[in-house]
Amino acid sequence: MEKYVSSLIISFFIYGFAGWIWESFICPLMTGHKIKNSGFLNGPIVPIYGVGALVVSLLFSPSESYLSIFIEGAFVACVIEYFTSWAMEALYHRRWWDYDDKAFNVNGRVCLEGFLIFGLFSVIAVKFIQPTLLSMIMVHGEVPLIMLATILCAILLVDLGITITTLANLEKRIDEFVRDAEEYAQRVLDGFEQGKKSIIEILETIRLTDSSAYQEFLKQKKFAEKRILKAFPALTNKKKK
């Protein structure tokens, strides 16, 4: 039993790392955006992908039809994403991601595009990846698997603790960050109008227009704030009523 649970935990980290690769590298390259660390945590993992992949893998059997896994897996994944968005917004009073510009979205938290992608990934995970992945992991001894799972969980908990500590008073700090960015924009950019651009776009324009002003601004800001805002630009928007 311990060996199986450890294998599932290791699978969670593999899926989380794959999700980080997808969001940080593949998606930006496909859409022409800059490569960035898109995760909530500092390390190379997006836990929601690990949770989603494990849940659908445990709920559905490879013997089920492709259509059944696609629809049910997509629904389960969207429920997880919706709840995660709601919980993080309730905790930090900010919208971490927003799909209002996507077709058939639900309160900006989930959308049809995500539903289709989740459905496809559910089929791939349940039918092909998870059975193979588990068989590859479980050929190893119980003790090494337990040790690896324990080490990975310890690293994740440390990263989570650092991230939560860093994000203390997040709402106040982001308000200050946005205000400072807009003040710099007013000084540096000719004809700048507040609200016309996102904060990330403002900073990029400052960088291209006056590199010295950009560097001066960044020196005053903490690394974590810049990383989080680049990963979640929607954070600059207030919590929706």
UniProtKB/TrEMBL annotation:
<feature type="transmembrane region" description="Helical">
    <location>
        <begin position="106"/>
        <end position="126"/>
    </location>
</feature>
<keyword id="KW-0472">Membrane</keyword>
<keyword id="KW-0812">Transmembrane</keyword>
<dbReference type="Pfam" id="PF06541">
    <property type="entry name" value="ABC_trans_CmpB"/>
</dbReference>
<feature type="transmembrane region" description="Helical">
    <location>
        <begin position="6"/>
        <end position="27"/>
    </location>
</feature>
<keyword id="KW-1133">Transmembrane helix</keyword>
<feature type="transmembrane region" description="Helical">
    <location>
        <begin position="146"/>
        <end position="170"/>
    </location>
</feature>
<feature type="transmembrane region" description="Helical">
    <location>
        <begin position="39"/>
        <end position="60"/>
    </location>
</feature>
<feature type="transmembrane region" description="Helical">
    <location>
        <begin position="66"/>
        <end position="85"/>
    </location>
</feature>
<dbReference type="InterPro" id="IPR010540">
    <property type="entry name" value="CmpB_TMEM229"/>
</dbReference>
<protein>
    <recommendedName>
        <fullName>ABC transporter permease</fullName>
    </recommendedName>
</protein>
